[in-house]
Amino acid sequence: MLGDSSPAELLIRQAHVLDPASGLDEIMDVRLSSGRIAEVGEGIRGPRELDADGLHLFPGFVDVHAHWRTPGREDEEDIQSGSAAAAAGGFTGVVMMPNTDPIVDRPVVVSGLVGRVERESRVRTRVSAALHRGLAGERLTEMRLLKQAGAFCVSDDGLGTASAGVLRNGMLYARSAGLPVILHCEDHTLATGVVHDGVAASLAGIPGSPASAEDAATATALVLAAETGARVHITHVSTALSAALVGFFRDRADVTADTTPHHLTLTEDLASTLDGRYRVNPPLRPEHDRAGLGLALRDRVLDFVATDHAPHASEEKELPMEEAAPGFLGHETAFAALHTDLVLGGRLSLTRLVETMSCAPGRWVGTGGSLAVGAPADLTLVDLSEEWTVGRGTLVSRSSNSPYIGRTLKGRVVGTMVGGEPVHDRTGAKFGARA
Ligand SMILES: [Zn+2]
Ligand SMILES: [Zn+2]
């Protein structure tokens, strides 16, 4: 859908432009032309104008971790609904995870998906292929061929990490193929429970998995990354110790790491509801982990935020905790939840939040994350003062398994553009306004 037509000129007037990558943080006019940022300054005039007085303008958010359930579970999400949800959340770039049906572990599946994404996605979308055939942690995929077919990176996400020896071979091969590896660090011999093995699990009588299931796998992955020189991204870091381990290896390995909005804002206390809607993997952790992740994000120990957007049909979520599928929707509530809890809570600056949602993940994927003149016009307009209550009716995703349903959040995306084209528009049709 992108680049089908050459977008007209548009002048976004009087927006509060916040772009940490360019050092911009003031009310300015931004002129878009031919899908790019053409001019940023004051008193600019243009043939078509959008009055953005009172709104913030950020570089579009980039989410390196999404499950759009295509191919195979289009009843839960597909490329159109997933990309519409991403755009509604202010995202202009996404990486799709390969744990679909069929699994994205062969070149023909990669090339088919890349073609569909080009036709159907509203946002810039990259395809992750599997690291191992069938995500089984045994035989490596043909990574060179997967890359030729269009894969951007490899990951066995959805399942935990393979044994150390197998993982080491995978890193060596990924490095030689020139592909980054996204790792869901989880040791299956330790992760035998349903929720975090803590006080809430004990009180609720639900089997827990210890934090060591993640921490031991993270430590192993970091040691192997340092030794092999592979480009490794550790996703959904959920414990303070794992974040500290990433910090220790920052200058010792080619490593980056993200954490999720839900691990930054919710805690294991939700296990006491016994409600499967709050089941997620890695599990929600105790308050000290939640607080530690916020500090790690603030202090640049963690690089950025990724949502792990994981739609599930209601019959898979509206179940007791033990029976429910793990995973939450993420795209549409990410900014609002983090703005409400971390920024308005005084624990993270708005600038750092934009850096962790736009600039840093944009650098990781190689596109977006900047409003510099000449950059693609991938941007999002946000009303920081709008309060809204998350409900099924407010969600664009085909699924509704958001852990924030019923919560009132402050800050809402009102418009998103990719390459200067509106892909989400709540500005009152102003994106399409004429002179
Ligand atoms: Zn995962
Ligand atoms: Zn995932």
Q: What's the quick description here?
A:
By secondary structure, the chain is of the alpha/beta class.
Q: Shape, please?
A: globular
Indicate the radius of gyration in whole angstroms: 21 Å
Structural class: alpha/beta
Helical residue percent? 25-40%
Bound molecules: zinc ion
The count of DSSP E runs of length 2 or more, i.e. the number of strands, is: 18
* Total DSSP helices: 12
Main sheet: strands, sense, barrel: 8 strands, mixed
Helix-strand pattern: EEEEEEHEHEHEHEEHEHEHEHHEHHHEEE
Unreliable segments of 5+ consecutive residues: 1-6
How large is the share of residues in beta strands? 15-25%
Distance between the termini: 25 Å
Q: What's the average pLDDT? A: 95
Overview of this structure, please?
The protein has helices at 79-88, 107-120, 143-148, 164-177, 199-204, 212-228, 240-249, 261-265, 287-298, 314-317, 334-343, 350-365; strands spanning 10-19, 24-33, 36-41, 49-51, 56-59, 61-66, 91-96, 124-129, 153-155, 181-183, 195-196, 208-209, 232-234, 255-259, 304-305, 379-389, 408-418, 421-425. With 435 residues, the protein is α/β, with parallel strands linked by helices. The protein is 29% helix and 23% strand. The model is unreliable at 1-6 (pLDDT under 50). It binds zinc ion (ZN) (2 copies). Residues 157-158, 184, 236 line the site of one zinc ion. One zinc ion binds next to loops.
Write a concise keyword list for the protein shown above:
single chain; 435 residues; alpha/beta; 8-stranded mixed β-sheet; 18 strands; 29% helix; globular; disordered N terminus; binds zinc ion
